[in-house]
Specification:
Length: 337
């Protein structure tokens, strides 16, 4: 099962890729006829701009599909649409203005809210400057310019507010979905994706990666004898100890229940033994609310050459269960690498 981290990223990226593609298709369908018509019958500048918009939209969509760099493609097509809107309006007058509202919607979906707002306000400023320097070039009366600027600016500001709030809500949902609310560690949904990253990075950069799986030995007794609040406090304390006993670049996860997982980049067998032993010792120094020491069983494994994540995880998990069967409060590092 893919992590929600990966799913959320793909969902956002896929939606924006679909939108970039939709813009390119709509541009070809609706703008191409105007480009052909104006290149044949004039005005030539407007026809050339229409043709430029079509070609640019298609090339940017192709770039997005090939490179998967949707952020850059979205920003590029937003700039093209905004500047083209200004140029076409300058040449065609009111016929160009009519496209502004559709462009506002596209730009706010395709680029970051602050960039979209800056682009739209810049274009509106350009329209105002053109009209004021050459009255009636675009609008028949001054009040038409004022009405257009007011309505377009209002649409842009409300679009910015909506887009900004939507981005914050999406980030909050992302955190809720990928973080354990009790301990603050990343959760099981994130782990699968991070294992993919570790395996990929290890193969590409020839870096050593270690995996630690940890299970609390007496957690059920804590819950049964002291209550779930004490159990929650124990889990939070273990998470704190893990954070203090590992490096900034190590990835910590609450896998579920009283089980924790750690991915450690740039480690060898000796370092993995050191870390695993330190974790067992540090947690054993902590006592629960009744004064009983809390102990853990730890299994660890180095990622083998050309090993997949399932095998890697299975070896660490198997070592953890071996440590538990031997009485707990110990670690075992799998040697099959």
């Amino acid at each position: 099962m893919k992590t929600l981290n990966l799913l959320q990223h793909r969902a956002v990226q896929d939606f924006r890729l679909q939108l970039v593609t939709a813009v390119a298709i709509l541009t070809v369908v609706f703008v191409s006829p105007f480009a052909v018509y104006r290149l044949v019958l004039g005005p030539l500048l407007a026809g050339a701009m229409n043709a430029f918009i079509v070609v640019a939209a298609v090339l940017i969509a192709a770039y997005a599909w090939v490179t998967k760099n949707i952020d850059r493609a979205g920003k590029a097509i937003s700039v093209v649409l905004a500047l083209s809107a200004l140029t076409v309006t300058t040449v065609l007058g009111l016929n160009g203005v009519l496209w502004f509202y559709a462009i506002i919607i596209f730009v706010f979906y395709l680029s970051p809210p602050i960039l979209a707002l800056a682009l739209i306000l810049t274009v509106l400023g350009g329209v105002a400057a053109i009209e004021l320097s050459a009255p009636r070039r675009i609008f028949a009366e001054p009040d038409e310019l004022a009405s257009f600027l007011a309505s377009a600016a209002t649409t842009a500001v409300f679009s910015w507010l909506f887009a900004s709030r939507n981005a914050k809500q999406r980030q909050q949902l992302f955190l809720w979905a990928t973080r354990d609310p009790l301990t603050g560690l990343e959760n099981r949904r994130s782990l699968d994706h991070e294992l993919d990253i570790a395996v990929s990075t290890a193969r590409r950069e020839r870096r050593g990666y270690g995996l630690i799986i940890m299970d609390t030995d007496n957690f059920k007794e804590i819950n049964d004898n002291l209550g779930h609040a004490a159990g929650d406090e124990t889990l939070c304390r273990i998470a704190e100890i893990l954070g203090n006993s590992t490096r900034l670049g190590d990835r910590l996860f609450r896998y579920g229940g009283d089980e924790f997982t750690i991915i450690l980049p740039n480690v060898d067998a000796e370092a993995l033994h050191t870390v695993a032993g330190k974790l067992v010792q540090s947690i054993a120094e902590y006592t629960d609310a009744a004064g009983t020491p809390v102990t853990v069983s730890v299994g660890a494994a180095l990622l083998g050459d050309n090993e997949d994540k399932q095998s890697w995880n299975r070896r660490a998990d198997r070592s953890m269960y071996r440590a538990k069967k031997l009485g707990g409060n110990r670690y075992i590092v799998d040697q099959l690498v």
